[in-house]
Specification:
The complex is a heterodimer. By secondary structure, chain A is mostly helical. Chain A has a single domain, classed as Helix Hairpins. Helices cover about 75% and strands about 0% of the residues of chain A. In chain A, helix 1 packs antiparallel against helix 2. The longest helix of chain A has about 30 residues. Chain B is mostly helical. Chain B has one domain. Chain B is built from 19 helices and two strands. A two-stranded antiparallel ribbon of chain B has the order 1-2. The longest helix of chain B is centred in the middle third of the chain and has 31 residues. Classes of the chains: A mainly alpha, B mainly alpha. At the A-B interface, helix 1, helix 2 and helix 3 of A face helix 5, helix 6 and helix 9 of B.
Chain lengths: ~100, ~475
């Protein structure tokens, strides 16, 4: 059975939208980072869908780059969260208010 | 099955290799040298940057692409290489003394600066959307770490985390835009092919293309700090180490504008009507909000952050004009902005003294009597940022607004000039404080170092020189933007 590209796209858009909503409404930084990951995976899905549809490998290669970069980004993000937790003992964005938000 | 590796010339990415090599060398030296030994990281970085600049000069006037069409080898990229190298070199010079106060004169700081510069170069020369994405992330991730360099400082941490979360959020938008564009073009990511393929695909993929364009504007809008994607700017600029704030304000903005211009001019000429309209609105909102809110700031770093938002607005005007003069003014203004903004931040570091103790604008009261030379330099940079002749800021604004008038956006030019008038208020307030108010209190001596003095001299002379004789730079910029056939 062949899954049409529009299905991939619909799922990808839905995942991306969920990720965006998550980033905007959740207050825990760890959850926010996970939501960002979800947005990136939605992008990956769209790439895979298109690459399969057009029989072009660029999209599949792009997915590897996205995953690598996402890992680097999360590594930095988690390090920063640890640093903040050491000084402030919190992981909630509402508590990060020294600088005017 | 045989695999053929396409031919390539390493020298066409010479500056990248030099910077990467220098950064890795610094990391190695840092790891291998015994604790407490004084290492010459700033000198090493400057050496690497100098060699990269020489390589850029040697490459000048080359055209075309390399590495299987992944990299543009053209004057537009080289002009930006020079701007980035200049910005990074000045940042290295203002950093050393400042970091030593905090006990943070570390090897990784310089290595990360060089990696960030490399990312900017990838952005300016990327001919394939993978390259542009990689450049953006190499630059951004390095700058996230740099913003959080002062690990024990709650402000620095908070700034870095806010930058990271919003930066990653905006990169995700940009990526989704790239994915949509990939779909709309029928499976191509080369910027060269985009325009033709989009025209061929026609009405069927129009929604996808429009969505991609909108997402690109969101993604790049975040990086250049344009309204309504500017919320992070004041917080991050205030919390990050001052030297990194300077670096972000000039380098990251210039790199994002380079890629933004390239994508808009090469991939979306057919949708010019749409993006010009969106950017018109963004430019007006960005200029107005930046200038109006800057008036209310009393922290100098925050004030310069809003001023940098306002300048993003002026630069967007250059993009809206979308003609040759517009592109030329973009290049000219980014170089001028690099000089005047880094100069201003150099003064901020000097006046801030030990560990940024004096960042309020009222700490500048009476500076004109205590340190005439420093006050004169600050006044010059403030005049330049406000766009008063005979500085580079005036010429840059003149080019930008003439480009807008030439393209028929008279109202945009009028709003821009009115915004410049508003901006004169808060820039001149610093000058008034320095020359017409008595000193607040004895704040202690200002520690002039050779490096910081050099930065102030170079930027002050540069701002005046390219302001009085803009011809040479204008010709260079005209030469650089010849690559855009649609202008």
């Amino acid at each position: 059975m062949v899954v049409p590209v529009s299905y991939y796209l619909a799922l990808s858009v839905a995942l991306f939208a969920l990720g965006v909503i998550g980033v905007l409404v959740r207050r825990n930084i760890l959850v926010i980072l996970m939501c960002i990951e979800m947005m990136l995976n939605a992008v990956n899905l769209a790439f895979i869908g298109f690459a399969d549809h057009f029989k072009a490998v660029d999209g599949q290669v792009f997915v590897f780059f996205v995953m690598t970069v996402a890992a680097a980004e999360v590594a930095v993000g988690l390090a920063l969260i640890v640093a903040i937790f050491r000084t402030r003992a919190t992981v909630y964005v509402d508590d990060l208010n020294i600088l005017k938000w | 099955m045989t695999l053929t590796i396409p031919s390539f010339t390493l020298s066409s990415i010479g500056p990248w290799l030099t910077l990467t090599g220098t950064a890795i060398l610094i990391l190695l030296v840092d790891a291998l040298s015994p604790k407490g030994r004084k290492a010459y990281f700033p000198q090493l970085s400057l050496l690497g940057l100098g060699i990269a600049l020489l390589q850029t000069f040697r490459l000048w006037n080359h055209t075309g692409t390399d590495f299987a069409r992944m990299v543009y080898v053209d004057n537009f990229a080289f002009f930006f290489y020079a701007v980035f190298i200049l910005g990074t070199a000045l940042t290295v010079l203002i950093s050393r003394h400042y970091l030593e106060d905090y006990g943070k004169n570390l090897g990784e700081y310089y290595a990360l600066l060089l990696f960030a510069t490399l990312g900017m170069m990838l952005l300016a020369a990327g001919a394939h959307l993978i390259m542009i994405f990689l450049g953006l992330e190499v630059m951004s991730i390095a700058v996230y770490v740099l913003a959080g360099l002062f690990r024990e400082d709650a402000k620095s941490n908070e700034a870095a985390l806010k930058y990271l979360v919003l930066g990653a959020f905006s990169s995700a938008f940009l990526l989704f835009g790239i994915a949509m564009l990939y779909g709309a073009t029928g499976g191509s990511l080369y910027l060269d092919d985009m325009a033709a393929r989009l025209a061929q695909a026609g009405a069927l993929t129009q929604p996808l293309t429009l969505l991609a364009l909108a997402l690109f504007i969101v993604g790049f809008g975040f990086k250049v700090a344009s309204v309504p994607f500017h919320m992070w700017t004041p917080d991050v600029y205030e919390g990050a180490p001052t030297s990194i704030t300077a670096f972000m304000a000039v380098g990251v903005k210039a790199a994002a504008f380079a890629a933004f211009a390239r994508v808009l001019f090469l991939a979306f000429p057919a949708l010019k009507v749409d993006w010009v309209m969106i950017l018109w609105v963004l430019a007006v909102a960005t200029m107005t909000l930046g200038n109006v809110v800057a008036i209310a700031q009393t922290n100098i770093k925050r004030m310069l952050a809003y001023s940098s938002i306002a300048h993003a607005g002026y630069l967007l005007v250059a993009l809206v004009a979308a003609n040759q003069l517009g592109a030329v003014s973009l290049l000219y203004y980014l170089l001028a902005y690099t000089l005047m903004n880094l100069g201003a931040f150099g003064v901020v570091i000097l006046v801030g003294r030990k560990k940024d103790s004096y960042l309020s604008i009222y700490d500048y009261s009476g500076l004109g009597f205590q340190h005439p030379a420093l006050a004169a330099a600050m006044a010059l940079f403030m005049f330049a940022l406000a766009g008063i002749p005979p500085t580079a800021g005036f010429v840059g604004k003149f080019y930008i607004f003439s480009a807008a008038v030439q393209a028929g956006y008279i109202w945009l030019a009028i709003i821009g000039v009115m915004n410049s008038l508003v901006s004169v208020f808060y820039y001149l307030r610093i000058t008034v404080l320095m020359y017409m108010k008595p000193p607040e209190a004895e704040l202690g001596p200002v520690a002039f170092t050779p490096a910081l003095t050099t930065v102030l001299l170079v930027t002050a002379v540069g701002v005046l020189l390219i302001g009085i004789f803009p011809g040479f730079l204008y010709n260079l910029a005209v030469n650089s933007v010849k690559i855009f056939p649609s202008l």
